[in-house]
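[stage:ingest] chain + small molecule (phosphoenolpyruvate)
[stage:ingest] validated
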Amino acid sequence: MLDSAANARLAPLGISTAAQVHLNLSPAALVEEALRRNEGTLTDNGALMADTGAFTGRSPKDRFVVKDANTADSVWWGDINIPFEADKFDQLHQKMVKYLEDKEIYVRDAYAGANPDYELKLRVVNELAWHNLFCYNMFLRPTEGADTSWTPDFSIICAPGFEADPAVDGTRQKNFAILNFTKKMILIGGTGYAGEMKKGIFGVLNYLLPHEHNTLSMHCSANVGEKGDTAVFFGLSGTGKTTLSADPNRGLIGDDEHGWTPDKGIFNFEGGCYAKVIDLSQEKEPQIWDAIRFGSIVENTRFIEGTHTVDYANKSVTENTRTAYPIHYIDNAIEPSVADAPKNIFFLTADAFGVLPPISKLDKSHAMYHFMSGYTAKVAGTEMGITEPQTTFSACFGAVFLPLHPTKYAEMLGQKMDENPDVNVWLINTGWTGGSYGTGSRMKLSYTRAMITAALNGELDEVEFTKHPIFGVAVPASVPGVPTEILDPRNTWSNKEEYDQTASSLAEKFVTNFGKYADYANEEILAGAPKAQVAAGA
Ligand SMILES: Nc1ncnc2c1ncn2[C@@H]1O[C@H](COP(=O)(O)OP(=O)(O)O)[C@@H](O)[C@H]1O
Ligand SMILES: C=C(OP(=O)(O)O)C(=O)O
Ligand SMILES: [Mn+2]
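[stage:predict] done
[stage:export] tokens:
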């Protein structure tokens, strides 16, 4: 039998029995629980180290959205939002409840959305104590003593040890993450990757905010300068959102998910950061380094042999090693995490072809074109022996998280740009220079930081710009603190012809990809397209 506090929270989720319910435990209590249950180990900096199991990243092919009367016409169905039957959802839900019946469970009241007008009240049910700590860190924490016995706007049940039977449950394989907008519930099973929970709620807000609140949701990080000037950094995974938003000279608003309201500026959805720690160094990323301490989690890392010191260079589990910490573990984080409408918008791309300039300025056409394109390149793990970069076009720099058609978000961004005509839009290549992946090298983080700082401080206002011959974006002639010769990517290639060919072939990929939006594209957006044919025929 559950006590009344637990029962009030769990009965609406169909849960009436559990071995024990741990409700809203403190971080220290959750760390103790995780250690007691052998879910993890303590590192010598005080963080809890845990493994996510077979899944060390999200599994987009196993992410479903329940298709019913509520969503049939509003959600954009296709290879991203994979439809799931409502009956099958209910069946899985019941099975999960049954699975949890004899388990200790960790329940948490939290919320998402740092602007009270857009707050989403959450309830999370976890099989794992460390997952519940992840939710404490990553979602917003109710104020001390607040009554959180609310009816949630959305709930998550996350049971990594529960596996679906694809033959009867309607899943693709044993793991799944399913969003149900009618039941207001997310079910996650068969995977221990904690990011599924935060990205699940991101998916929910990506539906509700544009659809019901005329608010643009964005896969971006954000920070703000002393003068209140906000910057947002859009980018797919690994392009630098988290790293570049942690800037000792600017207040951190958030590292991954934000909303832009019709009148009140931007707000973070989350209460924490989820930073990659592969090859993390104190010298290059001091703020993230210092955030790894008691209360933080490190995922899928290993110790230096014979010590409890994390070996950030160790990729034996995955390249996607992570840390999750509450946002105030970053010194100059701003709470509540809200700020004015952005003055500068950065699109981050990790271009493995070494073609795009490390910094360029976009007019509205180029901005809309690049936003719809969402180009980056994923580089496969070197241990697989793959040397070819994998080109990715992910609309709005986050297509996998968007329940609505990408044009909905793009239209809203276009409207915001019209309403804020002074906003600057920059394209930053945090990827390769001096040749493609394999021949060139990754852009130095210190240079990328210097370029962003210069853009933010207005130091590029008086600089001369030239148009990139193929992409048409405006490339500055100089940037303080950055060697001039790297600003034009062609300079950095020893073989210029090869650069031109690679650039043309990337331009063609852009054009081919944009074919998807033929119905939507208008003259203004197409003016931002690269000159693929011209270059190819030259
Ligand atoms: N020039 C660069 N700009 C940004 N990040 C870089 C750069 N060079 C290397 N990196 C590394 O790339 C990774 C970027 O990851 P992260 O900031 O977590 O991306 P995101 O938050 O967009 O998923 C970090 O591990 C960072 O150290
Ligand atoms: C948590 C994630 O976000 P990002 O890599 O963009 O930080 C993810 O994509 O799993
Ligand atoms: Mn990130």
